[in-house]
Amino acid sequence: MKFDFDKAVNTLSRNKVLTKTAQLGLLSRLDRAGFKLSTAKPLLKKAEELDVLGTLEASSDKVLPLLATVIDLAPGLLPLAGPALNTPPIVLFATGFASLAAAFAVITVIPDNTVSDVALQTALVIPLATIIPAVTLIGGGVLSKISK
Fold it and tell me: Where are the domains of the chain?
């Protein structure tokens, strides 16, 4: 599957992703936090040194379809970005640690006597111990930088 640049641009345009991003104040918050295009210059130089674009091109059959999916999902996820940016970082940190505690509780409380019990443990522990903590802890870190 090849990445269709024209389709991606049309999707962004049709769903007014950049307009919604501006309306939610995401760009102004990044600007207030000191993130500017010039701030990205060292990062872009490092990416060039590490041949990130070459790596991306080599794995484009795997990565670019994911990018197309992200672009398709962006309009639906943007309304969540506004409230998420107004959440205090401490709430996100607490949620991440609570999720880890819940994962530990699942492993402790649910016995692993049957295949269905192990399947239930796995189904609950994977999001509780990996996805939710990663998203909330990284999000809290980013928000603490942006909200300064």
Answer: 1-85, 87-148
